[in-house]
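Weekly sync notes, structure subgroup
Attendees: PM, AL, DS (notes)

Item 1: joint prediction request from the bench team. They want all two components modeled as one assembly rather than separately. Inputs as received:
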Amino acid sequence: MRTTICEMFGVDFPIFAFSHCRDVVAAVTNAGGFGVLGAVAYSPEQLDTELTWIDERVGGRPYGVDVLVPGRIDSSVTDLGTRLADAIPQRHRDFVTHLFGKYGLDAREPLPVSLSAYADEVGRRVTAEGAGGLIDVALRHPIRLIASALGPPPPEMADKARAAGVPVAALVGTVEHARRQVAAGVDVVVAQGTEAGGHTGEISTMVLVPQVVDAVDVPVLAAGGIADGRQMAAALALGAEGVWCGSVWLTTEEAETPPSVRDKMLSAASSDTVRSRCRTGKPARQLRSAWTQEWDEAPESPGALPMPLQLLLAEGAMAGINRAAERGDPGARELAGYFVGQVVGQLNQVKPARRVVHDMIEEFASAVARMRAVTHDDAPAVPGGISFPPEDVEGRETTEV
Amino acid sequence: MRTTICEMFGVDFPIFAFSHCRDVVAAVTNAGGFGVLGAVAYSPEQLDTELTWIDERVGGRPYGVDVLVPGRIDSSVTDLGTRLADAIPQRHRDFVTHLFGKYGLDAREPLPVSLSAYADEVGRRVTAEGAGGLIDVALRHPIRLIASALGPPPPEMADKARAAGVPVAALVGTVEHARRQVAAGVDVVVAQGTEAGGHTGEISTMVLVPQVVDAVDVPVLAAGGIADGRQMAAALALGAEGVWCGSVWLTTEEAETPPSVRDKMLSAASSDTVRSRCRTGKPARQLRSAWTQEWDEAPESPGALPMPLQLLLAEGAMAGINRAAERGDPGARELAGYFVGQVVGQLNQVKPARRVVHDMIEEFASAVARMRAVTHDDAPAVPGGISFPPEDVEGRETTEV
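Output from the run, pasted for the record:
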């Protein structure tokens, strides 16, 4: 295929695969797409190990890294100076303890009341300082893209990437954000609709993408609602140069999605997601679960904390919940969940990531062929194959395309 | 163009235009599309007048009628037996009076405290009985489609339409509803995404349409997020046989949108809509306004009543608000609003409806041409023009499409 994006990144297919799993990243890159490793879960040392693993497998084919850099951190958090975990109010810790009790989590599972150095470090990674360390590591590998999932990337990030000749991409949910990102020097805009998994705005992909395409002069990838080739064709029809997919990889063979969560995804309908602050502190689409319902609807819920405090609290709790769920604990299975988009309703089968790419391209080709047929593309004569009926009522001109 | 829908309805372009304005309906039908008149605002006698007007202008070209038939009416409403307006609690009337005072509505505007025979009649029209009268009138005209905007059409409606040889369409927001509608005998499903104006579900068009196409064996129209030819091309890429558009006609020359509301629409961004119960009692996307903010966010708000009581109350109030807004009353302009989808961000110019149709088709043809170029469609050799890179890592087969 040829789009600006294919030429810019040297890929066969303009399919960008966001995943926290190195196996998915390598598989998609090797299938002709472009894998993007979500780096937030790693320390700089771990990230170095993951990228080395990928380098050894992709034979120089292109891949990238995504860091989660919030544009603003709540000042009450950064002003503390010491351990982020200390900023989590007792009332919120107590609510998690209450949930663990209410859902009968196995007593072997330590309650997440002391949030530990682990949580503290995860929290630091989503600060500008923490993300900076990850970016330095990433740029020592032959990456071909750095993406920023939240807000404009810090100027240092753009500067470092530019010095290394690595393009920068940013996810946006509004036209205004897209303009701001391009003004901040971003090379590729990912226009992400509300139907996407993870942090999203409120505007749908169908509405957002053409407006972003019209507003900026850099290539646009479409994200949100894209898990098959018909949706990829729709994204390109809207004016995008390629697609950015996340949810579809979560049920691939290569993904490290906890089995209990993967099973929920395989059986979920598109109406089984919710956009909630209860996992990170910012609105993020995820599976509806006892966790989301309790935080969002229970009268005793203290409400979500700001980013990154809610992320710390939720990830600390989810680590325990997932362990308990894998042991078969029914209450833990009710609480377990993960970020996923509305396309979860289409994910009914575990497939290799390479097969997902190939199926998507085959369906894409079929969709394009179908659209050619709709426009009488086999008929000769009229350019474009479409003629308008004569104007016989209001006396306006006849137009031919 | 040729799709199943084009053949089924004898139209040049599979563009269905939902509008409450007969001028829009006639203009779109005469431009090669298919106009659908929203009948809820009319009495049976008025509807007869409107359809006669259309018949005299479209020269036998196809058009249809849309009725608003809720699948269920709150029993506390229908059990009253007498006047629907009497079922509106004093607390809700008082809140409207409070809003009229707070926003300084001109004293010449009578407060909507006694909701009158007008409201009572509007209410009756959205009951099964009321809609039945409209359907009888519609079937005496050469209509080619009856659409039901809410829930499965009552069996009497489907039976009458079938006896008259008129296909029935229904709007759906989930796959489950699509299956239920087809089981109830519907001939065309309109899969409507959450980004649409008016009554909508939560699933986006991008996600909903392919799932509905796979689930039912009748033609599917896509609705929600469609106001230009790129979006129409996307809809067809998703597997729809055509598009159903509502919002885009609201800013056409022919529309009867109140000028103050039209001006708001022309300057609104896609983020300026909200899905709220405050206008009809069911979640409906509309312009964000002082009306939506007060009902949804003010501490003193009594909350929306069930359909159709909230519709009565809101339409009664809006009639006064619109009159005051047209006199230039600034508070009334803050309160004024109307149903519209997220595409409102694209509506920046008043155009004739015929021009909207032609622009859409021209953009559609360009989008299809662009997609052909992406797939190397001019290159010979490989069928479909796409080949996959060799599998050199995991040892799986090479696939060619």
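Discussion: The two ends of chain B are 26 Å apart (CA to CA).
Action: AL to compare against the crosslinking data before next sync.
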